[in-house]
Automatic annotation (TrEMBL):
PANTHER family: ABC TRANSPORTER G FAMILY MEMBER 20 ISOFORM X1, ATP-BINDING CASSETTE, SUB-FAMILY H, MEMBER 1. Pfam families: ABC_tran. Keywords: ATP-binding, Nucleotide-binding. GO terms for molecular function: ATP binding; ATP hydrolysis activity. This is ABC transporter ATP-binding protein. InterPro entries: AAA+_ATPase (IPR003593), ABC_transporter-like_ATP-bd (IPR003439), P-loop_NTPase (IPR027417). Residues 2-231 form the ABC transporter domain.
Amino acid sequence: MIRIDKVTRRFGPLEAVKDLSLDIAEGEIFGLVGPDGAGKTTTLRMLVGLMDPTQGSLSVAGLDVGKNLDAVKDQIGYMAQKFGLYGDLTVEENMFFYSDLFGIDHAERDRMMAEFLDMTRMTPFRQRPAAKLSGGMKQKLALMCTLLHRPRVLFLDEPTNGVDPLSRRDFWEILYRLASEGMTILVSTAYLDEAERCSRVGLMHKGRLIRCDKPAILKQQLAPQCFRAESADLRAARGRLQNTPGVLGAEPAGAALHVYLEAGTAAADVERAAGDVRLNPLDPALEDVFIALIRTEERHAAA
Ligand SMILES: Nc1ncnc2c1ncn2[C@@H]1O[C@H](COP(=O)(O)OP(=O)(O)OP(=O)(O)O)[C@@H](O)[C@H]1O
């Protein structure tokens, strides 16, 4: 449903997206993650036709975005980071506005509005001005407006940024439901707990896709490099570990210290070199995986 073929996007000398290729199947929830400036928004903007690639091609629902933009627009919904809601209009007035924009007839509009308001549990708030909604409700309203023309493919740019954890969970329940009905969803997120919920995750760093797989596989691949440190003095051990060859990073994780080793580095060698520290194998979260992968990239770039 989504195909990105060797796409590069430059802004002057900056390569915001570098030689990116990606295929996403119908019904997938694909998560694009990466630090600020990694190129996620630029990728989404090219997919929805707001920006042309410098090189390469993109297609959505089998249609080339560069050649068939109008037809592509009929198939997609795009929820940008700053989606345009009208604060002084109520929930339903915002929905009226967007359905008029899409040219949806009123009977169909009313049917869909009832369905979406029910799905998002927003029916009690339909008369509330958008400006008076909580962050999570605003995002649900933006999603409903995006869904009004029944897109087959949904592009969401950090849709839950700044939203509280319960509302984020609520929002994701809606995404699951949409995907189970066959919608294809590409979502960028800074929250790695959300990335865990995706069918596949792509990690972007400085414009490049450095890994792309199912969360469980990424964790399995990186597990041999991830450890939890034990020491009489964790803080001092962290300082020593950071200067030990083969260590990519030693990062606090709550009260614990997580240590990431270069591929092929033996934990016993690091324990010996750092002194007064024991490295226990860690069942990594995606966050551990991504720290390890990004530190590896940074090492390669510095070398
Ligand atoms: N219109 C533009 N003109 C110049 N540089 C741009 C433009 N848009 C993006 N960039 C640059 O391209 C790089 C990638 O930006 P992009 O917004 O795609 O990253 P991102 O991963 O979405 O990060 P964020 O979460 O902060 O939006 C950044 O260095 C950014 O400054």
